[in-house]
Amino acid sequence: MKLVFLGGEVPSHRILLENAGVKAIGVNYWALKRRGLPKTKDYLLSERFEPDVHVFVDSGYSSALKSNLSAMELEAYYAEYQDWIALNEERIAGATEFSHPHLDPDWLLEQRETFWEYTSPGIFWPVWEPSQGPSELVNLAKNYENVAVSGASIEAELTLASRVRALKSQFDFDLHGIACAKPDNLRQVPFTTASTMSWLSPMMRGETIVWDGTKLVRYPKSMKAQARPRYKRVIEDAGLDFKKIIDDDPNEVTKLAIWSYLQLERHLEKRSGSFNENNDPLLSDNSDDIDDPGNAETGGIEPVNSVPDMRKELVSRDSEEITVLPVFGVTNKLIVDKDENGRDIIKNAPILSSSTQSLRQCDTCFVAANCPAFKPQNACAFNLPVSIQTKDQLRGLLNTVIEMQGARVAFARYSEELNGGYPDPNTGVEIDRLFKIIEQLKKLESNNEFVRMTVERQTSGGVLSSIFGDKASILKELPNDGLTEEAVTEIIVDAIED
C-alpha cells in the first residue's frame, strides 16, 4: 500500500515533501483554484513537481459539499476541472471524479461516458458514497480499474471492509482511500493507496507524530511536552534536530511526521498488512481527530504551538516537602520482631496498600474528548475503590473481570463475523485469556483436602517401628496381657481329649 501526502497545491508544502523524499503527493484542485490559478499561463504539474514524483489529484468534492454553489456553478466547476485534467493528463497518476448531491445523477453518468472514458487508463477514479448503495459499489468494481472512497464513507459504512474483500476476490480493481489514513481504516480496508493530510497536524495543531520502530504513534498537542522527550534517540537517528523539535519548530516537527509516515509505508509494503511481526497494530493513535489538520494554509504566518519553558536546573527539595508517592497508601502496623540480641520487641512497621486517590486531570486526560464527566481545570470525577482483603473480595473481583472479558470475546467474535467470518487471531487470544481467568477462579473456590504419603523401609525393624517407635510393639501383643500358663495347659488338655 502506498501513502499519498495531500497538500501539494501549497508550494511550501510541496517543497517540504520533495526534500523529505516523498514520491506520492496529492493535489486538491478545489484548494488550488481557491489559491488562484495563473491568469497569463497554464498551471502545469510538470513544471512544479519532480519527474519521479507521482501526482494524485483530488477533485475537491468534499470541500464542495460545504459550499453554497448552485447546480449551474457546480457544473461549470466540473468543466474547468476536466479541462485541467486533460491539460495535465500525462503527469497525473490518478484523479477522482467530481460529484455533488445537487448534480443530476444522469448528467454525472454522461460525464463519465463523454470524458473519463477517453482519458489514459487508470487515471479515472469514480467515487463511491454510502448513499449510492451496495449495488453501485459492485457495479464500480466490475466496470472500473480503480474505485475511490472517502474517510467519511468508511466511518459511515461499517461493513465496507468485508464487502471490499469479497469484491476483490471476484473483480480485478484497486481501492483508493481519500483522507482516511486513520489506524482502523488502514488496518481493516485493503487499500492500494490511502491519502492523508495528517502529516500537517504537527504544524497546524501542535500534534506529535513519530515512528517508534514498530508502529506509528500520534499524540495530541496536550501531550507533546511528555511525549517528545521519550523519542530523543529515534529523532536523532532520523537525522532531525531534537532541540528544534522540543522548541516546537514547525518545519522540524513536520519533517518528523513525514519521516514517520514514510517508515510506516515501508512496513506496509513489506508485510502487505497493518500488523508487525508480533501481530500488534502498526499504529497507535492517541488523538481522536479526523484525518484533517485544519486549515492547510497559514497565510505566511507560522503558528505558535510552543509549550511553557521547562526548568533546566535541578533544585533539592526540603525534607518537609517530600512525601510518599500518591499511587501508594501507607499504614503503620504493630509487629513482633527481634532485636540484635535476639530478644522479642514490638515496633511499628509501614505497610503498603493501593491508593484510591487519583492524580488525573481533565485537561490532560487521555479520554478527555469522550469523557461524560469532563470539566476543564478539574481533577478526575471518578474513583476506583478496589480493596482485596478477603477471599470474598477476591472472588468478586475475578467474577467482574470474567464478565468484562466475556464481553470482549463476544464483541471480537461479532467483529469477526462482520468482516466475512475470516478467523481473527486476536479473537483466539481473548478466548484463551478468558479461560485462564476462569481457571484462577476455580482454584480459588476449590476446597479439596488430602494427605499423600509414600513410605519405604529396607531394615529388619519394620516400617511401623520406624514411624511409631516403641509403641509399634503393642500391635504384636494379645489383648488382656496375653495367655497365662494355666490357660495354655487347659488348651493342650482339651486338644488331647478331643
Binned strand content: 5-15%
Tertiary shape: elongated
Give unreliable regions as ranges: 273-281, 294-312
- Secondary structure category: alpha/beta
- Output the number of helix runs: 18
- CATH fold node name of the domain at 2-285: TIM Barrel
Largest sheet: 5 strands, parallel
Q: Kindly state the mean pLDDT as a whole number?
A: 79
CATH architecture call of the domain at 2-285 = Alpha-Beta Barrel
Q: Determine the N-to-C terminus distance.
A: 111 Å
Helicity level, as a percent range? Answer: 25-40%
CATH class of the domain at 2-285: Alpha Beta
Q: Describe the strand arrangement of the main beta sheet, using strand numbers.
A: 1-9-8-7-6
How many beta strands in the DSSP annotation?
14
